[in-house]
Specification:
alpha+beta, Alpha-Beta Plaits, three-stranded antiparallel β-sheet, 4 helices
Length: 115
Amino acid sequence: MNRKTFLSTITLTLSNLLALGHEKSVSCTIKTNRICNICKHNLGKSIFFEKGVKDVEVDWVKETIKISYDATKTTPDKLKKYIVSIGYDADELKADLKKREILRYCCESNITICK
């Protein structure tokens, strides 16, 4: 291996390591209004469309969503707003009523539209 190739390899390796070091992975747990097994799947799948989301754990018994995300790309407030926009409550924020109405057929046993 000649000197140029060696230096190029070292430079690329160090650049990749530095780029990986800038990601700040954190997690937050958000309380939601209701989740059944179908919602668990749909919500877990949908939240990955938000920028920076790394992992999602939906607990339908505790009615919580644990989200691991890159703190340089999103915040808990943005994640809550997204959850509200697809029809679920997120901590103190209430769900979008039109979206909640669509979900009503999924979780009808535990819903009050006029809340």
